[in-house]
Amino acid sequence: MTGSPTESPCNKVCVLDPVTGFCIGCGRTGAEIGAWLAMTEAERAALVAELPARLARMTSREGRREARRARAATG
Known about the structure:
Structural class: mainly alpha
Helix content: 40-55%
């Protein structure tokens, strides 16, 4: 017996943060949002498990500084 499907973490606050590239509502990237329907159940579950940490980093000063440095380094 398989578990219930992982529901989308979307909460209808769909704005991508320009510093981190993550949605401020759910924590996913635009690419992850677009790929959601094509992901396997395991991929969805793994992604959902990462989101709380992403959202926490987005709201911390240090997390935002790290994101700015990473974006500057990649151009």
